[in-house]
Amino acid sequence: DELRRGIRGKTRRLRMWLRLGTPGRSQAAVSATTTSPLGLTVAGLQAAGILSTPTSASATTHLFKLVEWLQVELLQDFANSLEHTPWYRYPFATAASRYAAAWFATLEASTADVGLGPSLSSSGFWTSTIPAVVMGSLVGQLSLLALPCRAVAGDSYDQPGLREELLLWAPPSASDALDGWAAASLPANGTCSVARVPSTSLRLVRVPTFLALTESLLALAHAVPDAVILTISGHDTVLVRIAHGCNGEREQLPTALADVLARAPGASTPLPNLTLPQAALADGPGFHHSTGVRVPVTLLIEVIVAAERAKCKIMQIFDFYE
After folding, report:
1. Domain ranges within the chain, ordered by starting residue
2. Which residue among 46, 111, 164, 296 has the highest number of C-beta atoms inside a 10 angstrom radius?
3. Beta bridge partners of residue 296, listed in sequence order
């Protein structure tokens, strides 16, 4: 080949043809079903029974998968918004219009591919249309029910009021740890702060409300376990939800945690033994039960520490935002 390339400027080439077909079917019949080399290969493999032949129904159902999963995403978006926004402020009309636009676009594309009749008779059409009708009805009802709530509560939050006030005592030796907690846990937007109460060893701490309140207090218990919270927004008791009972354990709270609560004057369990779904705590072990407990604020950090030692999880410390 080296000598041949030097004399003639080229090398030998090996040419091969692949003939695909089935007994009794001519090559011309196979070739007639294709329009490109790639199509020839695919059609030939399908003719030989190696590849399955797609149906128009599967292609139509495939198109409607986008709309089907959009249902899931819209429900997840609504559920996620409830963590920081009341239901009556959710943009129901926007969500419904987004779904309707995707539904009409999918139907148009399917009609262009296979026609209106096959599109309307496909399973994908019905699995996306029936939920659309139900969701449309629910969205309409919720939008109407939201009107009086918005009239009373307004369309947005009072931003300066989105915080809770903690009256906190911490030993002098924990000053650096408390400052570190504040720097790491509190947003630097001016709404949250730590200030000393004049002529006392107390601190007035402003923390975010809603779920951020739980996160801030859990971080505080880790950073300064010797601290004592005296009040939360002027209240001396707070409702706490504790998840427990993993790996087939009993429904009652662990003894160590129950003993701490028993020593707490005024502690009660207004929401005992609520069964939780397995997916309630996707980032941890499968807790099967939860208990709502009213805890004196002065014992809150001790309860948090005891719950973690007992392999329980503080799911939420409920806020006082009105």
Report:
1. 2-47, 56-153, 160-317
2. 164
3. 237
How big, in percent rounded to 5, are the helix, strand and coil portions of the chain?
A: 50, 20, 30
CB of 184 within 8 A of CB of 222? no
Angle at 33 between CA 30 and CA 35, to 5 degrees: 115
Buried b (16+ CB within 10 A) or exposed e, 48-81: eeeeeeeeeeeebbebbeebeebbeebeeebeee
At 163-191, the pLDDT tens digits run 899 999 998 888 899 989 988 887 765 56
Q: Where are the alpha helices (DSSP H) in the chain?
A: 2-8, 27-31, 37-47, 56-63, 65-81, 92-114, 116-120, 123-153, 175-185, 211-223, 255-262, 300-309
SS3 244: strand
The pLDDT assigned to 28 comes to 45
Q: Residues 75-122: pLDDT tens digits?
A: 889 888 887 788 888 888 888 888 888 888 888 888 888 888 888 888
And the tokens for 321? 């935002």
User: Per-residue pLDDT for 300 more than 90?
Assistant: yes
Can you say how many angstroms the Cα of residue 264 is from the centroid of all Cα atoms in its chain? 35
Q: Are 194 and 179 in contact (CB under 8 A)?
A: yes
pTM of the model: 0.63
Say which residue the tokens 């706490």 belong to.
240
The region of weakest confidence among 8-12, 122-126, 270-274, 305-309 is 8-12
**pLDDT tens by residue, 3-32:** 444 444 455 454 444 444 444 444 444 444
CA-CA distance, 220 to 160, in Å (whole number)? Answer: 22
Q: How far is the C-alpha of 127 from the C-alpha of 96, rounded, in Å? A: 17
Tokens of 83: 């963590």
Q: Which helix (H) or strand (E) holds 292?
A: strand 287-296
